[in-house]
Amino acid sequence: MEEKRTSVFENGLIWFGAAVSIAEILTGTYFASLGFRKGLCAILLGHVIGCSLFFLAGLIGGKTRKSSMETVKLSFGQKGSLLFAVLNILQLAGWTAIMTYDGALAAQVVFPVGAWVWCLVIGGLIILWLLIGIRNLGKLNMAAMSALFVLTIILCIVIFGKGVSSETGTEEITFGAAVELSVAMPLSWLPLISDYTRNAEKPVKATAVSTVVYGLTSCWMYVIGMGAAICTGGNDIAEIMVRAGLGIAGLLIIILSTVTTTFLDACSAGISSESVFKGISGKKAAVVVTVIGTVAAMIYPMDNITDFLYLIGSTFAPMIAIQIADFFIRKRDHSGEKFSVRNLLIWVIGFVLYRLLMRMDLVVGSTLPDMAVTVLLTLVIPEK
């Protein structure tokens, strides 16, 4: 959508805003039953895996100066990439709805005027961010990020002020499943990281900074959620804010974090739409996705997103595995073809394998072994 080169600092700022979100905090609450020490290990291990893939995916876009869905053509061909562009638009529309829903529910606890009202407020602010655009956000984005940083530190102090026990809990979730939940959040950004690194002045440095900033901040959000759940025995972060007396500060955290994260989802949905529908305005498509997501948030309950996260993992982990093998190892480019049937079949195998691995509850989760097998298949199966 926008061709202006972004600085390394601007890229880091974008991904700080992406990581500070109610969805990440809520996902962190699922780790509470492992106990703080074991839960922290699962969070860190999952993010090391997920952010390594995040870096490689962003590097492909940075080096080729192509959007995420344009880089998919390198492995799956002009028409083959459309499958992933459509799937990406659907998952981003889903994220837009989920983030708006979570933000509205949390805001409703702090300031009860009706969840549907907060959906409209959040949706309207996301559209405002889209219309301003990354190129022109400048000081507004800086102010929002600074406020989020300060407010999140306050939230962290409130939650951990009385200390958190490191004892193991009831383990309602297994360690392997927790690792996979930790991998899933950075993995969900793989189909759009290149939309931002492609315009970086220094793509390698920008990708590295984006990865480190996102990874550390995301871990921080998970730990806040886990700590809050351990301390209170519940998972309602908005209720915790109210009890802590944060009031307006808590409301600002909820609104700003939801807008700055969901803006990226909607923006990238617009960019992916340009790959599917020739001549379409990416910005207009992003606004349409935001409207659809806002309406969906007002109508449908979206309280548990774990199945959604696992579906994203099973879809995009084998996709990026094939891209990594093709770009960094095989040095193959299929963008001149309509379809790469070979790679599409390997992706199907990777998708099915991921779903099977989920049933085995491996300590390292499903993503790492699935990608290892997918990369191996991409290297050993010959071209026609």
Structural notes for this entry:
- Helix content is 76%, strand content 0%.
- It is an all-alpha fold and 384 residues long.
- It has one domain: Hydantoin permease (Orthogonal Bundle).
- The protein is globular, with a radius of gyration of 20 Å.
- The two termini are 37 Å apart.
- The mean pLDDT is 86.
Number of continuous helical runs: 16
Low-confidence stretches: none
- CATH level 1 name: Mainly Alpha
> N-to-C SSE series?
HHHHHHHHHHHHHHHH
Helix content: over 70%
Mean pLDDT figure: 86
Largest sheet: none
Q: What proportion of the residues form beta strands (DSSP E)?
A: under 5%
Assigned CATH superfamily: Hydantoin permease
What is CATH's topology name? Hydantoin permease
Q: Total strand count, please?
A: 0
* Alpha-carbon Rg, integer: 20 Å
**Shape verdict:** globular
Essential attributes:
384 residues; mainly alpha; Hydantoin permease; single chain
Structure in a nutshell:
76% of the residues lie in helices and 0% in strands.
Chain-wise SSE layout:
Blueprint: H1 8-19, H2 22-29, H3 36-64, H4 68-76, H5 80-110, H6 115-132, H7 134-160, H8 175-188, H9 194-197, H10 203-232, H11 237-243, H12 248-276, H13 282-299, H14 306-330, H15 341-358, H16 367-380
